[in-house]
TrEMBL record:
Listed name of the protein: RagB/SusD family nutrient uptake outer membrane protein
Gene3D superfamilies, A to Z: 1.25.40.390
Signal peptide coordinates: none
Domain SusD-like N-terminal: 118-217
Keywords for the protein's UniProt record, in alphabetical order: Cell outer membrane, Membrane, Signal
Pfam families, per database record: SusD-like_3 (PF14322), SusD_RagB (PF07980)
Family note: Belongs to the SusD family.
Length: 637
């Protein structure tokens, strides 16, 4: 598929167009190549995979607001855009949390394809061109044509959905604008948000019936859309439509087109959750029938020794870093290219590699505190856990020697935490299995006050003292003989679907044994007690799970933990209208340049995030409003 995408890049050449039409890039400037592009089955297949190219580019998490704007990861600032993160504009997405979004040159601009954004209108146009010309090749078998049409419809739906999440009401581009279209024809208007949701789900419905449930030829077809992917995306789309950001949101009801058409409904509609619940039921059933199941870690033969505790952590980590595993509903082909950003220096050899490890992806202290205690409840609810004393120094003991360096000074808050905390987050004193070590009896560990983690150049540093360990396979080693274990980016996992299912159940019916079941299946894999047992026995709010509002909070926190660092939480927090609350918390970490434990474990303010109502939807570039006076700007910009 990657080879085909490379070929199509030479076919679909996008040239400059007149400024009055640039905002949608609707003029099919590649029209002269259409006859050759659809001359035969091979060329047509190549064009389809050109339609996939924008989708595959979404594996670059720098352009994903669900990753960069989630408050899960921060990037040090100021560092020049050219430093460490892949060229000019590389860290642009992280600047939004600092209040630097603007309407003159928007960050992560997916409307125009600028500042870490991709031009989604170009992607939609490619899909439309494909659908309008797929009947031309005479040698394309009917069964292949049916599948390819379904894929193009899904891609067109998903690109609209991506824009919908970012901008709210958008134009619907269902056909290619003719080359001789008048100025008024190309000056399209934004459509009411519910109309766009309906359009997206309609396309997905049309596509899903003609897609295969599983990929049979993984060597040549990995990454192509299946009916299971389509049905799971439909469930997510409908849950998004039902969520507070889009469903009766009083903050946006005044947004209207120039002709007075309201773009958001002012009334909350409970039936939207019912539709989402039905879609989740269908998706869960389809995933089960397709053999999608929880990931099972199998110990490789090159491992010298692995305790049960380490194996459990690798089983959690492998859900992300073991490519194309049974739990990944949807995986994108491109590799995750930022392991060096997520890795601490754990050896003297690694510390000598100036351009090896930069460690810039830092986990805020507040994010580390989101993970549960070992009793399976939030740290501020566990009546047996010392919440007030969590910043005190405590030394690694034998009870935690599977996770913490024995006898090493670390924060008390790192003790008695759930498995996902130790699998997903690294910190001063935590063990780091891998990085060239295959015997967990002699594992490396993070020693952030020995000079390895924060060398004198002050370029390769982690601003908080917490790393997203989850995103680094144990096989990856940074040293004089570096070995990078690449993996493809997981776009959707089974546990995320289960938690979405539970969320919809709760919103429709309130707490129930059926809803608890799906959350408990996720918790069981993480080694936690059921919600009922954990809250009843350990929480200072034991009845929390029995109310709709309390169970909603539990589900939201469970999703943020389970899907941490996977580019999902930022979107969830937006649709729940909780991102403003989360970003009201200062980004804090430890006093990272200190060389003693007493001085290191002092809270340090990294920065105060800036987020207001206007940031829930991205601004449309000011110039686009000038060239198309029928467009209206999102509120508060």
């Amino acid at each position: 598929m990657k080879k085909i995408i490379s070929i199509i890049a030479a076919v679909v050449i996008l040239s400059d167009i007149t400024s009055c039409r640039k905002y949608l890039d609707v003029v099919p400037d590649d029209i002269a190549t259409l006859e050759s592009a659809f001359a035969n089955a091979n060329e047509t297949t190549a064009y389809l995979f050109g339609c996939y190219s924008t989708l595959q580019s979404l594996a670059d998490i720098r352009g994903n607001a669900g990753f960069t704007g989630s408050a899960e990861i921060m990037y040090p600032f100021p560092l020049s855009d050219e430093n460490m993160l892949g060229g000019a504009g590389g860290n642009a997405g992280f600047r939004i949390m600092r209040g630097l979004q603007n309407r003159l040159s928007p960050i992560q601009n997916f409307w125009d394809g600028e500042n870490q954004g991709k031009n989604m209108w170009q992607a939609i146009r490619r899909c439309n061109i494909f659908l309008e010309n797929v009947n031309k090749p005479l040698d394309l078998p009917g069964f292949k044509k049916v599948r390819m049409i379904a894929e193009a419809k899904f891609l067109k739906a998903y690109y609209h959905y991506w824009l919908l999440r970012m901008y709210g009401p958008i134009p619907i581009m269902d056909v290619t604008m003719p080359i001789d279209a008048s100025t008024e024809q190309v000056r399209v208007s934004r459509q009411p948000v519910d109309s766009v949701f309906s359009y997206v789900t309609k396309l997905i419905d049309e596509a899903s019936v003609d897609l295969p449930s599983v990929i049979q030829e993984s060597a040549s077809e990995a990454g192509r859309i299946t009916s299971v992917i389509a049905l799971c995306v439909k469930a997510e789309v409908l849950a998004t439509q039902a969520s507070p950001l889009f469903n009766g949101n009083p903050d946006v009801t005044s947004l209207k087109n120039k002709n007075g058409t309201a773009l958001f409904s002012s009334a909350y509609d409970a039936s939207k959750w019912e539709k989402a619940l039905t879609a989740c039921e269908v998706a869960v059933d389809a995933a089960d029938k397709a053999g999608i199941s929880l990931y099972q870690f199998r110990t490789p033969g090159n491992i010298v020794h692995l305790s049960d505790s380490t194996r459990e952590l690798l089983a959690l980590q492998g859900t992300v870093t073991d490519s194309w595993n049974t739990e990944q509903i949807w995986t994108l082909n491109p590799y995750f290219g930022f392991q060096n950003m997520c890795t601490p220096v754990v050896s003297a050899d690694a510390a000598t590699q100036l351009f090896g490890i930069s460690s810039h992806f830092a986990v805020p202290l507040a994010m580390s505190e989101l993970f549960y205690t070992s009793n399976g409840v939030p740290i501020n609810e566990d009546k047996t856990w010392d919440y007030q004393g969590r910043y005190k120094i405590q030394y690694g003991d034998s009870a935690h020697m599977s996770y913490l360096k024995l006898g090493f000074p670390t924060a008390k808050g790192n003790f008695s935490r759930e498995r996902r905390y130790y699998a997903d987050v690294a910190f001063n004193g935590s063990l780091w299995f891998g990085s060239g070590v295959t015997d967990d009896r002699i594992s490396n560990y993070v020693n952030a006050i020995n000079g390895y983690a924060y060398p004198p150049d002050k370029l390769r540093f982690n601003a908080t003292g917490y790393w997203p360990r989850k995103l680094v396979p144990y096989q990856t080693t940074y040293s004089s003989n570096s070995v990078i274990q690449n993996y493809s980016w997981p776009f959707m996992r089974l546990t995320g679907l289960w938690l979405l299912y539970a969320e919809c159940m709760n919103e429709v019916h309130g707490p129930s044994s059926d809803a608890y079941l799906w959350v408990n299946k996720v918790r069981a894999r993480a080694g936690l007690k059921t919600i009922q047992d954990a809250w009843t026995s350990y929480s200072n709010n034991p009845g929390k799970y029995t109310t709709k509002e309390g169970f909603r909070q539990i589900i939201h926190q469970e999703r943020r933990i389970e899907l941490a660092f996977e580019g999902q939480s930022g979107w969830d927090l937006r649709r729940w209208k909780e991102l403003q609350t989360v970003l009201s918390t200062p980004v804090q970490g430890w006093n990272i340049y200190q060389k003693t434990a007493e001085n290191y474990y002092q809270l340090n303010l990294v920065f105060q995030p800036v987020f207001s109502l206007k940031d829930y939807f991205f601004p449309i570039k000011e110039n686009d409003l000038i060239v198309n006076p029928n467009l209206v700007q999102n509120l508060y910009w």
